[in-house]
Amino acid sequence: MSRISSPVQPHERLIGTDWVATGIVYPDSQNELLPVLKDYPVTLSFSKDQIDGSSGTNQFFGDIPKMTSMEFQVTNVGQTLMGFEENDDPRRFQEDAWVSILTTINDETESPPEVVTLPYTLFDERIGDTDEWTQVLVLGSFQSPLARFVPLKDGMLQPPGPFDGDDSKTLPPLKIYSLILSNSLDQIGEQVTFEGLYSDRMLM
After folding, report:
1. What is the pTM of this model?
2. Cα distance between residue 62 and residue 164, in whole Å
């Protein structure tokens, strides 16, 4: 006799899903979702107790100690890093905005909180004037969104190219070094290779 699988519980809806951002709120954008840079997508994937993805330039990872049908918690966030030659590189601003959502939201102190709680809403939305629908994941609330995602499908991501479609202007080159995002002073460093790029991965 075959075993009937248990239905997905409300708090498990995100487990095993992959998302790509359509907009992110920057610290000074007054709750306005700004478009993600062309060719530098922000992605977010969920497993049972972890998240990972791309900030557009670098890969990030973190633990999920708790998830409900309305929010999930994030801790031990870290990332590999390719550095930016120029301080005003748009990729830096995008990465800083996304990482701040994962590490400092709801924080009223100067130090990052040990655990960040992210409210979320998952709903279906019609695609334009078509009869097709897509799921949408909003972090934050409708009144104060932090980021908006749609499902990540095969073929959606393309290799990086000229910034914003302007062939006459390419982004500055990147330099590789290590960056630590931590909620704790106790850290152990481990040298790793990630997608062909040498980096230092810090175990928080």
Report:
1. 0.74
2. 30
